[in-house]
């Protein structure tokens, strides 16, 4: 293949240092990790016996769309679907619900909602609870009102459990699950959401225990539920725990390619650890499990992310020889790594090949070219790719503009923000977090403060991350008075950061907290001077 020969020439001219992992041993799990135990949901279940096959099966076609997604409810998609078919003024009712919070008791608030004149339905209750997801008490008030009016769908129960989990109110969330049990409702999705929220709260032990107690609810999880559980652990970074749990419970859930692909996806696309990914690849061979197109797609993605062009193209060639036809995700990975290695012409040829195959390039295809070009400050080439993107009737996404923001000046940043608003793709909180971080790293606090003013003009409400980044950056630039001013604004919005509060405590010689004047310190300790003595630099003594 011509691309593979190109990779060999690049590899020979600019050899990449490869760390071979032939004798690599998997690190033992630390003692702090939750103890995993083998559990059984049914009395007897015979494990299936696998035999190594010398001739691997050759499925006809592989595409990324064929890969099974083991995900919980996507609430964003539910909201978009309801908004398309709903003509209810959600914002107006959100304002009414916020007024109900002024009452002293829940009964008075409920009576106020009863008399507000709004006729509830399941879609309205779901959408309003979604809008109030940052204020769990108000969301819970509306949930109880919807329950009273019998206007709760199954997705609304799951959404409320998800919101309570986000705010750490797990006991209240469990009370809702108990209510579902009393109503003889299937709680499997609700329990998976609880597992997801425990993992998001960095509590893998609770997540595993929650999966194990499904037995108490007389529910035997099937293979899909098991794979969804593994995917949740991997998504939140607990890949070692997911792998160990899969191996320990192989009698109940026989080792199959789908489970290994979930673990492989964790190492390849979430953590991006090429050595662990190669280890899993070998483990699959030891267990007599044949890799499939999804396995190759994950590995090619991982090699491309670490900018290993040679192995990306080698696996692509091997994938085709074994009869797997790559999907768009594989070609996107190749396009990215080729662009990173200054092979832009070859990347464009891949796009042409994708079109000839009948696959339609999407926004990710072009963004994977624009991003590395902007990182390398090749803005003219990035703009030409953007022009090709628009020629193909593909609208730029918020990720497209974020790529250009990574190397824009203050004037260019403001211009890009205006373009984003006109295109209807932001800016959002992540956009301004990216800009503030960039200007603080460049030690340009004045530009960061100007962007802060722009953020309020775009009606983007700053969160804790924005304040922490700005105040911390101002302290690093020794702008103490401005840092205190922004911290006071942060506290007025009921946001606090213990680390910043400690730094801003008036304990220093000039009320600058732990950040002291370097002229009055020596090896981190305060130096006292006489009344009429002059503090001189060591150079001038």
Structure report:
This protein is mainly α. Helices cover 60% and strands 1% of the residues. It contains 27 helices and two strands. The chain has helices spanning 2-13, 75-85, 90-100, 106-114, 122-131, 136-148, 154-166, 170-182, 188-200, 204-212, 223-235, 239-248, 257-270, 274-286, 293-305, 309-321, 328-340, 344-356, 363-375, 379-391, 398-405, 410-423, 429-441, 445-457, 464-476, 480-492, 498-503; strands at residues 521-522, 525-526. A two-stranded antiparallel sheet has the order 1-2. Strand 1 and strand 2 form a beta hairpin. Helix 15 runs antiparallel to helix 16. It is globular. The model is unreliable at 13-68 and 511-541 (pLDDT under 50).
Return the string of H and E elements: HHHHHHHHHHHHHHHHHHHHHHHHHHHEE
Radius of gyration: 28 Å
Question: Which percent range describes the beta-strand content?
Answer: under 5%
Count of helical segments?
Answer: 27
In terms of per-residue confidence, which ranges show pLDDT below 50 for 5 or more consecutive residues?
Answer: 13-68, 511-541
- Which range best describes the helical content: under 10%, 10-25%, 25-40%, 40-55%, 55-70% or over 70%? 55-70%
Mean pLDDT: 80
User: Can you count the beta strands?
Assistant: 2
- Main beta-sheet strand count, sense and barrel state: 2 strands, antiparallel
Structure class: mainly alpha
Spatial shape: globular
- Largest sheet: spatial strand order: 1-2
Instruction: State the end-to-end CA separation.
Output: 72 Å
């Amino acid at each position: 293949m011509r691309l593979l020969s190109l990779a060999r020439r690049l590899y020979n001219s600019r050899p990449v240092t490869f760390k071979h992992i032939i004798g690599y041993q998997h690190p033992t799990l630390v003692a702090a990790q939750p103890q995993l135990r083998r559990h059984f949901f049914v009395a007897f279940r015979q494990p299936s016996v696998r035999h190594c096959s010398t001739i691997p099966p050759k499925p006809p076609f592989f595409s990324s769309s064929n890969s099974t997604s083991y995900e919980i409810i996507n609430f964003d998609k539910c909201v978009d679907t309801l908004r398309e078919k709903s003509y209810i003024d959600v914002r107006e009712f959100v304002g009414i619900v916020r007024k109900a919070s002024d009452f002293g008791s829940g009964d008075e608030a409920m009576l106020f909602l009863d008399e507000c004149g709004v006729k509830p339905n399941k879609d309205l209750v779901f959408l309003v609870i979604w809008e109030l997801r940052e204020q769990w008490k108000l969301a819970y008030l509306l949930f109880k009102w919807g329950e009273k009016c019998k206007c709760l769908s199954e997705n609304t129960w799951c959404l409320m459990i998800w919101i309570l989990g986000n705010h750490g109110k797990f006991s209240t969330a469990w009370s809702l699950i108990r209510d579902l049990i009393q109503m003889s409702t299937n709680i499997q999705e609700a329990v998976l959401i609880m597992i997801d929220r425990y993992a998001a709260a960095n509590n893998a032990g609770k997540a595993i225990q929650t999966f194990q107690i499904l037995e108490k609810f007389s529910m035997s999880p099937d293979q899909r539920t098991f794979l969804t559980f593994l995917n949740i652990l991997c998504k939140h970074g607990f890949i070692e725990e997911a792998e160990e749990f899969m191996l320990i419970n192989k009698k109940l859930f026989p080792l199959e390619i789908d489970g290994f692909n979930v673990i492989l996806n964790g190492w390849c696309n979430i953590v991006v650890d090429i050595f662990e990914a190669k280890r899993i690849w070998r483990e699959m061979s030891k267990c007599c499990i044949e890799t499939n197109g999804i396995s190759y797609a994950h590995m090619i993605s991982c090699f491309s992310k670490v900018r290993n062009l040679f192995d990306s193209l080698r696996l692509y060639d091997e994938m085709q020889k074994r009869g797997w036809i790559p999907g768009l995700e594989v070609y996107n990975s190749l396009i990215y790594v080729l662009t990173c290695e200054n092979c832009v012409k070859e990347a464009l040829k891949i796009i042409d090949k994708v079109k000839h195959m009948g696959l339609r390039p999407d926004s990710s295809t072009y963004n994977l070219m624009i991003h590395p070009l902007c990182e390398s400050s090749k803005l003219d080439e990035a703009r030409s790719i953007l022009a090709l993107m628009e020629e193909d009737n593909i609208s730029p996404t918020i990720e497209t503009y974020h790529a250009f923001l990574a190397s824009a000046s203050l004037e260019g940043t403001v211009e890009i923000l205006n373009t984003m608003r006109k295109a209807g793709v932001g800016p959002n909180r992540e956009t301004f977090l990216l800009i503030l971080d960039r200007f603080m790293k460049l030690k340009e606090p004045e530009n960061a403060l100007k962007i802060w003013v722009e953020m309020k003009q775009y009606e983007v409400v700053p969160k804790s991350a924005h304040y922490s980044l700005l105040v911390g950056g101002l302290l690093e630039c020794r702008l103490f008075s401005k840092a205190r001013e922004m911290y006071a604004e942060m506290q007025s919005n009921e946001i606090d950061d213990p680390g910043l509060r400690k730094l801003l405590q008036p304990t220093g010689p000039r009320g600058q907290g732990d950040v002291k004047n370097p002229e009055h310190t020596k090896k981190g300790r305060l130096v006292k001077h006489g009344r009429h003595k002059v503090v001189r630099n060591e150079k001038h003594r």
